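Fig. S4 source data, part A: sequence.
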Amino acid sequence: HATLASDLLEEFRAPLVDRLTLYLVNERVFQAEDFYLHTSGGMYLRDEPRKRYFREYERFLNRPLGGAASGEAWSYRRLFRRQVERLRQAVLTGSHYEPYVFSW
């Protein structure tokens, strides 16, 4: 498991996952029959709906985010790349890493 990748994603988890989940619920992308109760007691997506989830996830990551101060089109994917570069610079130069701060 790539723990550094998970750590980098953590600063985006709440705004990304919460917004994506609300979008999927509001757009009724999934239905009750898309899920099944696993023997562990957890609810899981069936194979085809899981593929749909990943398509929606990729679409969500790449869509433009509003309000970029510079006027450039930003996406979650682009923000991920920028934060990886910031971490790289912090490690190489010993400087302080600045997490991305969302302002809504």
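Fig. S4 source data, part B ends here. Residues 22 and 85 are 29 Å apart (CA to CA).
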